[in-house]
Amino acid sequence: MAARSVFRAALFRDRVALVTGGGTGIGTAIAAELLGL
């Protein structure tokens, strides 16, 4: 069973998100989650 996203589907539509610390830890998890939107 796949987990649901914590972000609304259209929350970042036509937007740019800058994730600092995307190489490790929670930054990586957030970047991966945003990539999947």
TrEMBL record:
Record SUPFAM superfamilies? NAD(P)-binding Rossmann-fold domains
Q: Which InterPro entries match?
A: NAD(P)-bd_dom_sf
Supply the name of the protein: 3-oxoacyl-ACP reductase
Tell me which species this is from.
Answer: Chiloscyllium punctatum
